[in-house]
Amino acid sequence: MRQSALFTKTRREAPADEVAKNAQLLVRAGYIHKEMAGVYSYLPLGLRTLNKIVQIIREEMNAIGGQELIMTALQDKDLWSRTDRWDDDKVDNWFKTSFKSGGETGLAITHEEPLTRIMTEHISSYRDLPVYAYQFQNKFRNELRAKSGIMRGKEFLMKDLYSFSKDDAEHKSFYDKARAAYLKIFERAGVGDQTYVTFASGGIFSEFSEEFQTVSEAGEDTIYVDEEKRIAINKEVCTDEALAKLGLEKEKLVEKKAIEAGNTFNLGTRFSEPLGLLYTDETGARKPVVMGSYGIGPTRLMGIIVEVLADEKGLVWPESIAPFAIHLVSLGKSGDDISRIADALYDDLVKAGVEVLYDDRDVRAGEKFAESDLLGIPKRIVVGKEAVETEIFEVVNRATGKVSKTPRAELFPSEGGPASGRV
RNA sequence: CGGGGCGUAGUAUACCGGUAGUACGCUUGCUUUGGGAGCAAUUAGACCGAGUUCGAUUCUCGGCGCCCCGACCA
């Protein structure tokens, strides 16, 4: 895309009402717009980035047998009353509203109840199990205090997958697959090294749940990490008893600040029993379905990646989730030789299937470079006088700052091998 | 929800009981052209309501909104 056609602008100064690094940089770079406290819109660059994250998650969920659907935001009060999760005493962060025709509704905080009910129409025999279903959907949580930019909002995108299994053994087998898939997602999103499976409170469902915690100073949680085993335990549940149960030694643990990037729960029959999700087994006996739920917030993950990878110049995206693979920066003026070379390179890169943001504006070089750094696209190709004379282009790696001189032909994805710059 | 702070141009900020200044941006002209350049001109502003006062953007109260600490965080 030509940058001259991009409607968003960058800002030199951070907004006065944001303290979190992720929100400051994303607003400055024009990726997001703050609508209200804890409520953000995703502008073209932000949406492209978010969609990359969503697609990685989708691929990994599909790979373990997940089937994608989408449920409603508006929720049925009666349904939630049946699992005792409607009253504000029980769940205090509902956004509730009413129908003009009478009766209450609420905006979904999560989707165990509606999906369990849906499954009662589709699961009746052991032959129908297991089933794995997931969605990407905006969740609404009426937080008393939104904070940390896009990492803890009142409206945010969530990937939630639910598993429906015959028994604990079948559930456990899938649960382990889901854990592995989650680790792969964080790996692909560029924060694998910093992300640990972390034992945490299971809330009202189970003794423990597993959180996926990404180490960062911006984190709200404190975890104790065992670097060797690459697992951690949340401070909230870190007792001698828990450590013994998990086989962790106190001396080997290192305290870190971390952000919860994902969470998986063993739900057992907490929802299937009250909502009547039963199946008939081989012997003709009626049994409740064993459930699990698995959440990752793509918008939060986007914030985490900013927190972990950004530097003093601005955003730094891994290739896998950057809004564009290449930032092509022309230092020419429209109509001159430099511009013609840059235009031709842009056209050829697009034809080759490379996602390019082309800074074709008549703006000074310094401003273009500063903006390019802020936007955080992994590779910058600079077209200056040298390129006109030699067909050799300057390629700058945003993360490392390394500059390399590259002949035109090598700017294109190679046949067969790993495509450089291709996404 | 407890405590604290703050609302001034598109953005970031300053001063003041006598209707507001700066920087960036925007628009225009000239210069400049590999790290947010320079000069000049232009454009544009006191969250809402009530009160005190001759006069309120400034003081008081209420509302709304935003931020921070804590609590909370299926």
Automatic annotation (TrEMBL):
Keyword terms: Aminoacyl-tRNA synthetase, ATP-binding, Ligase, Nucleotide-binding, Protein biosynthesis
E.C. code: 6.1.1.15
One GO molecular-function entry: ATP binding
GO cellular component: cytosol
PROSITE patterns tied to this protein: AA_TRNA_LIGASE_II (PS50862)
Catalytic activity: tRNA(Pro) + L-proline + ATP = L-prolyl-tRNA(Pro) + AMP + diphosphate
Signal peptide region: none
Enzyme class, first EC level, given as a word: ligase
Domain Aminoacyl-transfer RNA synthetases class-II family profile: start-end pairs: 38-318
InterPro entries found in the cross-reference section: aa-tRNA-synt_IIb, aa-tRNA-synth_II, aa-tRNA-synth_II/BPL/LPL, Anticodon-bd, Anticodon-bd_dom_sf, Pro-tRNA-ligase_IIa, Pro-tRNA_synthetase, ProRS_anticodon_short
Superkingdom assignment: Bacteria
PANTHER family listed in its UniProt record: MITOCHONDRIAL RIBOSOME PROTEIN L39/PROLYL-TRNA LIGASE FAMILY MEMBER, PROLINE--TRNA LIGASE
Protein name: Proline--tRNA ligase
Source organism of the structure: Candidatus Kaiserbacteria bacterium RIFOXYD1_FULL_47_14
